[in-house]
Design brief:
single chain, Alkaline Phosphatase, subunit A, eight-stranded mixed β-sheet, four-stranded antiparallel β-sheet
Length: 715
């Protein structure tokens, strides 16, 4: 290892014979770390409050599997995140630097740049096999954390505008895939497992939903602990316990109502900033550490334990002394919560933890003594302290920022993406939050109270109290027109009631009041599609200056849909190409590109369009083997090419996956009828009639009856 070579120069020359003897001893002795490289397992649990683990709260029964593992490990009792949202927090974990350096400040609109060295890259360069299995969209490979991972499994499904919660997959699936990888991986390996389940919405599976009916969040945490128990058991059974470093942490916590914050991403109180950090290392005695540490310390700690050089750019400090039971020299901890600033234009929120005192910088500043007030109930800020602490924060920012941070806003690294953007007439460079003098009026503490009113109205609407909910939302909109959620929630309520034009009017008002809100913009595009105003969809997307739109494959898929309905199939293909360049395994965009290329093949007869359609449908099926729409499209393509047998096989596969998939039932009837197999055709038509007849228009019913009569005819 490079570090060992550099250290050798510290010693005086010795005889060649003695040196050779030492080298032989190093090779054959089982007691030296150089004999066998140690594996590394990193487990991150999304939205995990430290006080929901028994090892932190002292309460038993919720997380027995994690607690049992922690009995073998070192538990850091005061560990903190650098950010309160998923991607920025994980960036600090895997890069060993703060958001000031890596520049990632919120989910979805920033990415980890190639110039930054991830822990995976560092280990890979030194011979570790690398794999990652993540649970949800915020850690999609498009955002750059895949750097250094030979396998980066983010196959959790597709995100779309109509689902305002991130698409995810359960911990059971993530752990199963990780175990399959481990069974084949050569040592040494570095594995990262990310479980998203405790994130809102809280929907634990049975039996955890029954065990924790009054706290579904606790049920999600218990479920993840159970699934990780399978992983820990595998490590024990497989004999990896003695040569694997295991690090378990949360990316951030969850408000659960503390300080008025229901979820996370707004404040930076300890309910969301304090995270568990549990490190198991072979040969290290279990104990607890009270020192204040942070996410950026994980990278250098791994390097130190593996006796690898710590890259010069890493800002964190190794915790190896703490693992050995010695006192840790604490550092200043920087943190931020900038989702409201970048997404909504609210006042930014940043801060420092210095000598166990926590300063929160915002228009309404706060200071807490964490030794005596860890739950931050007594603000001890004074005017003189505020002046001093603001200066310290500015000094820290200046000394610890990087010029790279300015380039982290999502500008896709592949120049081909830029070319495709230009080919669609999309030349915008993106927009940033406005630079204004923030005041108490747009402090997060002020704004979140109104946000909570919006959530209360939404809960009322879910209980059927629609008119009352609309009244509350309109009151909030009048008081705080800069809150984007009032417009999107009002629009959704009107949409549910079938008042699409009124829903659109609300969103138009929102766009005028908040032109930087991507939430309003994306809802507006979706509603225009619902209204079949395709030309407007094209105009709105192509003229957008919002930075988020450049990184959103769903938006470009929507543009392709609009072009397709306008009959501009080549433009549709370009839009789908762009969507797939942003997310190469996006099955909906792949299937839609297949449909557009199929129409072009039908129009021109050119084989290049057949090939593109064929490849696109198969790409969609590869990404989602149960995607019936892709099988239906592939069948239609075969039918156009005159290959009726393969068309029938594809339609039958679609029905095998979904017996109630109407288009395939109907098309199978037509295909068999064209082959003269009337009995089979009749069976499919009758199946289709039984399931869909009542929902058909009159002319469709008439056509179906004619086809059935034709099958029953003896001619």
């Amino acid at each position: 290892m490079h570090l060992r070579r550099r250290r050798s120069f510290l010693f005086k020359p010795i005889s060649l014979l003695l040196l050779q003897a030492i080298l032989i001893l190093i090779v054959i002795s089982p007691g030296f770390g150089a004999v066998k490289k140690i594996n590394v397992l990193l487990v991150t649990i999304d939205t995990l409050r430290a006080d929901h683990l028994g090892v932190y709260s002292g309460k038993t029964g919720l997380t027995p599997e994690i607690d049992e593992w922690a009995q073998k490990a070192v538990v850091f009792k005061r560990a903190f995140a650098q950010a309160t949202t998923t991607l920025p927090a994980h960036a600090s974990i895997l890069l060993g630097v703060t958001p000031l350096y890596h520049g990632v400040h919120e989910n979805g609109t920033f990415y980890i740049q190639d110039e930054l060295l991830t822990l995976a890259e560092h280990l890979q360069q030194h011979g570790w096999k690398t794999g990652a299995f993540v649970g949800a969209y915020p850690l999609d490979s498009r955002f750059g954390l895949d750097q250094g991972f030979a396998v980066y499994d983010d196959e959790y499904g597709s995100q779309n505008f109509d689902n305002h919660d991130y698409v995810e997959r359960r911990a059971e699936v993530v752990v199963d895939k990780a175990l399959s990888w481990l069974a084949k991986a050569n040592e040494p390996w570095f594995l990262w497992i990310h479980c998203y389940d405790p994130h809102q919405p809280y929907e634990p599976p049975a039996p955890f939903s029954h065990k924790f009916p009054s706290s579904p969040y606790a049920g999600e945490v218990a479920y993840v602990s159970y699934q990780l128990g399978r992983l820990f058991s595998w490590l024990n059974r497989s004999g990896f316990t003695d040569d694997t470093i295991v690090i378990l942490t949360g990316d951030h916590g969850e408000g659960l109502g503390d300080h008025g914050e229901r979820t996370h991403g707004y404040f930076a109180y300890n309910s969301t900033l304090w995270i568990p950090l549990i490190i198991y290392a072979p040969g290290v005695k279990p104990h607890q550490v009270e020192s204040f540490v942070s996410h950026q310390d994980i990278f250098p700690t791994v390097c130190d334990l593996l006796e690898l050089p710590i890259p010069a750019d890493v800002q964190g400090k190794s915790l190896k002394t703490g693992l050995k039971g010695r006192k840790i020299k604490e550092s200043i901890i920087y943190f931020e919560s900038l989702y409201p600033y970048y997404s909504r234009g609210w006042a930014p929120l940043r801060g420092l933890i210095i000598d166990h005192q926590k300063y929160i910088d915002s228009p309404i500043p706060e200071l807490y003594d964490l030794n005596n007030d860890f739950h931050e109930e007594k603000n001890i800020i004074t005017a003189s302290r505020w002046t001093d602490l603001r200066k310290k924060l500015e000094d820290y920012k200046r000394k610890n920022s990087s010029s790279l941070a300015e380039g982290a806003e999502f500008k896709k690294k592949d120049p081909e993406v830029s070319r495709r953007l230009r080919s669609l007439g999309y030349l915008a460079q993106g927009s940033s939050p406005p630079s204004i003098n923030f005041s108490a009026a747009n402090d997060v503490k002020t704004m979140l109270a109104f946000e909570n009113r919006i959530e209360e109205a939404w809960q009322m609407a879910n209980k059927g109290q629609i008119e009352e909910a609309i009244s509350i939302l309109n009151q909030v909109r009048k008081a705080k027109p800069e809150l984007d959620a009032t417009y999107t929630r009002l629009s959704l309520l009107y949409k549910k009631q079938g008042q699409l034009e009124e829903a659109l009017r609300v969103l138009e008002q929102g766009r005028e009041a908040l032109p930087i809100s991507y939430e309003i913009f994306s809802n507006y595009v979706s509603l225009l599609l619902d209204l079949r105003r395709y030309q407007e969809v094209v105009q709105v997307i192509n003229s957008s200056s919002l930075r988020q739109s450049k990184s959103d494959p769903e938006l470009w898929n929507y543009l392709g849909v609009a072009y397709g309905h306008l009959g501009e199939f080549e433009s549709a293909v370009k839009a789908y190409d762009l969507a797939l360049s942003l997310d190469s395994d996006y099955p909906v965009a792949a299937a839609n590109r297949g449909v557009a290329a199929t129409f072009l093949y039908r129009q021109t007869g050119k084989e290049e369009w057949f090939d593109l359609a064929h490849d696109s449908f198969n790409l969609a099926i590869k990404a989602d083997e149960n995607f019936v729409t892709a099988y239906n499209g592939l069948a239609f393509l075969y039918h156009l090419a005159g290959d009726r047998q393969r068309a029938i096989e594809a339609w039958e596969k679609a029905v095998e996956i979904n017996p109630d998939f109407g288009p395939a039932l109907y098309n199978l009837g037509l295909a068999y009828l064209q082959q003269g197999q009337k009995d089979k055709a009749l069976s499919w038509f009758l199946n289709y009639k039984e399931k869909f007849f009542d929902s058909l228009r009159q002319e469709e019913k008439k056509k179906l009856e004619e086809l059935i009569n034709q099958c029953q005819s003896k001619k």
